[in-house]
Design a protein that fits this description.
It contains 20 helices and 5 strands. The chain is mainly α. It is a multi-pass membrane protein. InterPro entries: LipidA_mod_glycosyltrf_83 (IPR050297). One of its GO terms (molecular function) is pentosyltransferase activity.
């Protein structure tokens, strides 16, 4: 197996570059990659409404650096990468539209840079197609302009594997070696555990395979993990009772990591469910799921093509990292969110694109029109499905965010204005919209006690949110109930609360 992994790579030192490599280094190659990135950015701005408001997790991340709202409770699994990413905007502006535009521009630039890493390893037409495949998935378009970590883990993974291969092929390529460290740090900065899973095949190769420049690559990978996850580890000892306790808390919040067959859950989430927990109900229409099954099949075809093109190790490494990146979200948690698999999709995009390009260029003249027609029809149908799911998801998400904003406006009319405190049903995002702090006495965000909540009610407005038919906790049953948006709020007497 070791010998198999040592198959020469395109562009290896002392080997004349292949025709594919020569084509991909032409000046026009960058133009095609840039056009894909620009189209991706514009599609985000047009199809994902910049003013649709912030989601639940986004409010947690943005609140950490925003001077306009109190910081929400930061639970054990979260990392500080996203707050630092949005800080250039969120630290001085409360405009969601401005933040979305900033993230859309940044995500487009990041896609271009990640694809550019692969020049010389694959033909430019393959890389441009790969960018198009990844960028047109509804989940990529939806989360590209959001203050969420998964897209950035995907970009880091794509760049990391490419830089790793370039550094392997040319020991004098210091830029590639730095790229390994920086892209690994980006992944760990966003989600430390995802970075470890994704980089696992690279670590194994750097340690175990004879003939690879092991010390340099291993140092770059480890340095990147330490640089990215170092703050998360230190914070574990400062605020979470140690690294082991933080990992245990993170596992508990995610339902207890272990053997959980979540493939079916991921399939149910393909219809646009941002969080499928609990993941029940019928499967989506088969038309919605076709691309999900086609992706691994085309990736395997891409591997067959890679063997013939003498870039087996390159494609194998992409598939290996995609596999390890997907393992925790397909087999170790009991729920699903489509964004979890973004790193898998990014890594599979290149072998999938290799297969698609081969299908429309390699067949004989007699079969080429058939192959081109089938691929064109398949891609057209794929785009139609992705657009339909994206539009429905954006509309549904916008409606829910507007409901939170309406509830916040009603709270202000009731006298629950900053400084204020909210707890109960959907308190975290509604508190962000209202400018209040949010607390909980149980669940994933538990950070206070009932006694502290009652005490807070004597000095500032405090509200307990429930569903219209829900019951408040015992300490709030004597508080005045009021409708607030689609919910009900029980407002503590005193400290200005309950004023209409």
């Amino acid at each position: 197996m070791v010998k198999t992994l040592n198959i020469p790579l395109v562009g290896a030192k002392r080997r004349a570059p292949s025709s594919a490599a020569r084509v991909s280094r032409r000046p026009g190659g960058d133009v095609w990659l840039a056009l894909v990135a620009v189209a991706f950015t514009l599609a985000q701005l047009v199809l994902v409404r910049p003013g649709m408001g912030l989601g639940w997790d986004e409010t947690v991340y943005v609140s950490q650096v925003s001077p306009h709202v109190p910081a929400a409770f930061f639970s054990a699994p979260r990392a500080r990468g996203v707050p630092l990413l949005v800080a250039p905007i969120a630290s001085w502006s409360s405009s969601t539209t401005l933040l979305r535009v900033y993230l859309a521009l940044l995500s487009g630039l990041a896609l271009y840079l990640a694809l550019r890493v692969w020049r010389g390893l694959f033909p430019t037409r393959v890389l441009a197609t790969a960018g198009g495949v990844f960028a047109t998935l509804w989940v990529t378009l939806f989360y590209g302009p959001q203050a969420m970590p998964n897209y950035w883990v995907a970009i880091g993974a794509l760049a990391c594997v490419g830089c790793f291969l370039r550094a392997r092929a040319d020991r004098s390529d210091r830029a590639a070696l730095w790229g390994v460290g920086l892209s690994t740090a980006l992944m760990a900065w966003m989600r430390p555990t995802d970075a470890v899973w994704t980089a696992l095949p690279l670590l194994v190769l750097a340690v175990a395979v004879r003939g690879w420049p092991r010390p340099r690559l291993l140092v770059a990978l480890v340095a990147g993990l330490v640089a990215g996850a170092g703050e998360w580890v230190l914070e574990a000892y400062v605020s979470y009772g140690g690294l082991g306790q933080r990992l245990a808390d993170a596992s508990r919040i995610q339902g207890g990591l272990g053997w959980n067959f979540a493939v079916g859950d991921q399939m149910r989430s393909l219809s646009g469910r941002a969080l499928c927990r609990p993941c029940t109900g019928a499967m989506p229409n088969p038309v919605v799921m076709v691309w999900w099954f086609a992706l691994p099949l085309l990736a395997v075809l891409g591997l067959v093509i890679a063997v013939r093109a003498r870039r087996t190790a390159t494609t194998l490494l992409l598939l290996a990292c995609a596999t390890t990146a997907g393992i925790p979200y397909l087999f170790m948690i009991g729920y699903a969110a489509p964004r979890f698999l973004l790193p898998v999709y990014a890594l599979l995009a290149i072998p999938v694109a290799d297969a698609l390009v081969h299908l429309v260029t390699a067949p004989s003249r007699a079969w080429r029109p058939v192959a081109v027609t089938l691929v064109a029809l398949g891609l057209a149908g794929h785009l139609a499905v992705q657009f339909a799911v994206l539009q429905a998801t954006v509309q549904r998400t916008t409606d829910s965010h507007r409901a939170w904003a309406a509830t916040a406006a009603d709270l202000h009319r009731l006298g629950v204005r900053p400084p204020c405190l909210l707890t109960g049903h959907e308190a975290v995002p509604i508190a962000f919209y209202a400018g209040c702090s949010s607390v909980a006495t149980s669940g994933h965000n538990a950070n206070t006690t009932e006694t502290d909540i009652v005490r807070s009610g004597r000095r500032e407005p405090v509200g307990v949110l429930t569903t219209p038919g829900g019951r408040p906790p015992a300490y709030a049953r004597d508080w005045a109930p009021h409708p607030a948006g689609d919910l009900r709020v029980y407002v503590a007497p005193g400290a200005g609360g309950g004023a209409v």
